[in-house]
Design a protein that fits this description.
The protein has 549 residues and is mainly α. It has a domain of 380 residues. 66% of the residues lie in helices and 1% in strands. It has 22 helices and two strands. The protein has a two-stranded antiparallel ribbon. Helix 17 crosses helix 19. The N terminus is likely disordered.
Length: 549
């Protein structure tokens, strides 16, 4: 079965299951006896979160409402003098009425350019197209399968976690492929399959803040952070890899703590609370045999990838390299290599994917090559619609000066509290963690919070890169335990193949220890980096204005 066919099948399962998730029965294709399985509701805090979250409108509608509210509030506040001084211009902050005729005309003339020039849009599309080639050819799936297939039993848990992290190279593949594979491997090795679900789910979630490789989420988050920072400082630039050093270092404690939680908490709990069904059919989730042709193609494609990386490092090595800035620096906003990060990601994914596709036979014609990119763009449709309205909101929020007003007013309040920056950042982590229970989309959430938190904390001397890292910690940790997470219904299906009574409460209870562990270990890692003065990533500092670069 081709990877894209597998993806569509899982997508169909998810769409069908959304009805079930809201309380209605549906015939599950995953059950060998074709019995009707209904997700159990849950009470208490989890039930309240689910009920409140289900009443929240679609995130795109939230931004339409936010745009309207911004325009109305700007009209009201334009008549008031607040007396706050912009730290960059030295002038009093005045609110522009976005409902004034001239403002509405300007909005209409800039509506297309606001969308077309929206920083995350182009970067995400370009990176995703390259990843689509690698995914559509089967290169990524083959690599993950080979890694899991050769894993010894005693290393099964940490390898499953690592593979979950690496699955971020292909959008949503972790949820569609890795989680059911992990459940099957745990079951086949004598471990509880739901513990495999927990370990792989935790690895996938942890990768938002801890990962070996950049992913498509990095330019998304960076784009919103930079736009927000420029509300205070129009010249401020943020590197796409501004959190990479922290993300790379955090992989070690994340793997260790998730391994410990799986072995010491999750699996013992699963054996007591989730007894396996007697009529389990897991034939569909067994790892497909990799053919000799695919095996040869994978090794050649991997060799090509290594050659490309070696070539990149060789091109960067000379002090007068054309990929460096005029001063010979690599980690500089003016360095072509930093300006080309997204294009490099595209090539590093697409070229090995093409080689694998041709040699393995998955790409029989040029149509297969282009279709692999077309297929993955289906995952971007909702995001593109959301970006259009987010771009208009960000423009109105900035042009009205409401963002600057809120930032300066909030900063004055923070200054009056005289809190250490460490306490302020911890407050951001806690706040985002609570909000993440209801709004799980990282891009949607950060597009709301970035225009408020980034300039506000800049005004009290906290760098945008640090604020972004704090956000990613909470976003990474809490997604796994909230019923509002988009892939919860599908993951419940995977669990029900082994334990039919699995419901929302079951999965949330299974994942709660991982949430607590990830929050603690990622926060400690961040503060250790901060205390030691280790850069969070390229051109990243802890204070504003920058001192390290």
């Amino acid at each position: 079965m081709k990877i894209r066919d597998y993806y569509y099948k899982r997508s169909t399962d998810l769409s069908a299951y959304l009805f079930l998730y809201r309380g209605g029965p549906v015939m599950s294709q995953e059950n060998s006896n074709d019995s009707t399985v209904q997700v159990q509701g849950t009470g208490g805090i989890l039930g309240a979160i689910e009920r409140i979250g289900n009443r929240i409108p679609d995130i795109t509608m939230l931004f339409i409402a936010a745009f309207v509210i911004t325009c109305v509030v700007s009209a009201l506040f334009s008549q008031i003098h607040f007396g706050y001084i912009h730290p960059t211009t030295g002038k009093e902050i005045t609110i522009t009425n976005m409902l004034a005729p001239e403002s509405l005309v300007t909005l209409l003339t800039k509506m297309v350019s606001n969308f077309a020039g929206f920083p995350p849009l182009a970067m995400v599309i370009v990176a995703t197209l390259g990843i689509g080639v690698a995914q559509g050819s089967g290169f990524i799936a083959t690599g993950l399968k080979k890694l899991l297939a050769v894993t010894p039993k005693f290393l099964l848990t940490p390898i499953v976690i690592v593979v979950g992290m690496l699955s971020h190279l292909a959008p949503d593949s972790g949820y569609m492929i890795i989680i059911p594979m992990a459940a099957y491997l745990f079951y086949a090795s004598g471990k509880h399959p739901l513990a495999g679900v927990g370990a792989s789910f935790a690895g996938i979630a942890g990768a938002f803040a801890a990962n070996y490789t950049p992913s498509a989420i990095d330019p998304v988050i960076q784009g919103f952070s930079q736009m927000a920072a420029q509300l205070i400082d129009p010249t401020y630039e943020i590197n796409v890899l501004c959190n990479y050093f922290f993300s790379l270092a955090a992989t070690v404690p994340v793997i260790a703590v998730c391994w410990w939680v799986t072995e010491k908490i999750t699996e013992p709990w699963c054996r007591k609370a989730c007894p396996l069904d007697v009529d389990i059919d897991v034939s569909e989730d067994a790892i497909d045999v990799i053919t000799p042709k695919q095996n040869r193609a994978f090794y050649i494609a991997s060799f090509v990838l290594i050659l490309m990386l070696v070539g990149l490092f060789a091109a960067l090595w000379p002090e007068d390299s054309i990929l460096r800035d005029p001063a010979g620096n690599i980690a500089s906003f003016k360095a072509p290599v930093m300006q080309s990060i997204v294009a490099i990601i595209f090539l590093l994914a697409a070229v090995p994917g093409i080689v694998f596709g041709i040699l393995s036979g998955s790409f029989k014609s040029s149509k297969d090559f282009t279709k692999s990119m077309e297929d993955i763009t289906h995952t971007l449709v909702q995001l593109i619609v959301f970006y259009f309205f987010a771009a208009q909101f960000m423009y109105a929020f900035g042009a009205s000066n409401l963002g600057a007003l809120i930032a300066i007013a909030g900063a004055e309040f923070l200054k009056s509290l005289a809190l250490p920056p460490q306490v302020t950042v911890f407050g951001i982590i806690v706040f985002v963690a609570l909000l993440n229970l209801l709004i799980t989309s990282a891009s949607a959430k950060w597009s709301i919070l970035a225009p408020i938190f980034v300039p506000m904390l800049m005004s009290v001397g906290i760098a945008p890169e640090l604020t972004q890292a704090a956000f990613r910690i909470s976003d990474s940790a809490v997604n796994v335990c909230t019923p509002m997470f988009a892939f919860y219904p599908l993951i419940i299906i995977y669990c029900q193949k082994y334990y039919k009574k699995t419901g929302v409460g079951t999965l949330s209870s299974l994942m709660l220890p991982y949430t607590i562990a990830l929050l603690i270990v990622l926060t400690i890692t961040l503060y250790l980096f901060w205390a030691a003065g280790i850069p969070l990533g390229f051109q990243a500092d802890y204070v504003y204005p920058r001192q390290m670069f």
